[in-house]
Design brief:
Shape: flat
Number of strands: 4
Mean pLDDT: 82
Distance between the termini: 31 Å
Number of domains: 1
Order of helices and strands: EEEEHH
Amino acid sequence: MLDSVYDDSKSYTIACDCHDGNHQVHMWIELDSDQDINLVNMTFYVNTTTPFWKQGFSRVRAAWDILVHGYREDQHTLLLSKQAALNVADTITQVVKELETHDKSKNE
């Protein structure tokens, strides 16, 4: 679902097929404005949860990772039907083409 349209970027929300709103992914697609580099910047924002109170999870270990390493790795799974995955891929392709066209017309 298209959320926002900006000058050289668009943002979307990709819903998880499990229908839990906490599992959705926010996707931001931006075309690099530097003509020489020709890159597409894709950023994904996800909500992750940490099972602090689940048996076997070490809060001390999690805090130690952040304190010593400066980050903690988490994973996120997005369940998509085959058609939904194809739709996401097609959306990415279409947005890159649209942003490229917009960028070329802006530079003329």
